[in-house]
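user: Here is a favour to ask of a fellow structure person. I have my own habits and do not want them to colour yours. Could you put it straight underneath, so I can go through it closely?

assistant:
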Amino acid sequence: IDPSVETLLPLLRSQPPFYLTAHIHEKPYLVTQGDTIRLPFLMHGVSPGDTLRLNRATLLGSRDYTLKAGVPNKELGEKQKWLDERLFVCRATVMGVESEPLRIKEKTKRRQRHVRKIKSKHRYTILRVSEVTVNDVDAVKSSSV
């Protein structure tokens, strides 16, 4: 851990409530504790009541302090950089699955009388952020990931 992070992390930790930019499937979501997230897709392999740990984050902050992940160098082909997951804990609970009303779109081809009806009914996963905390410097040093 960088020495500047060691000195500034207690200042950030002393100022709750915290916010976090968590990334789920490379889409950023700015969340605080108690927020509800409606993901624009159905997350497979989860059921209502499951707890997820969101460990991909680029921004962690409070009212006066912000901790950012490094900026990737696109010329060198670097990918997105993330905050060290030992610095924070972000947990979300799966609330359920929501579905939109059935949409019917009529598709026709030119000079044809036949009309196809395309049906779509998308489903979305709903998450509730149950915990956003910043870990202590001693806890970060003692744990190794």
Summary: The beta strands are 19-24, 27-32, 36-38, 51-53, 57-61, 66-68, 88-99, 103-108, 115-120, 123-134. The chain has a mean pLDDT of 91. Residues 3-13 form the longest helix (11 residues).
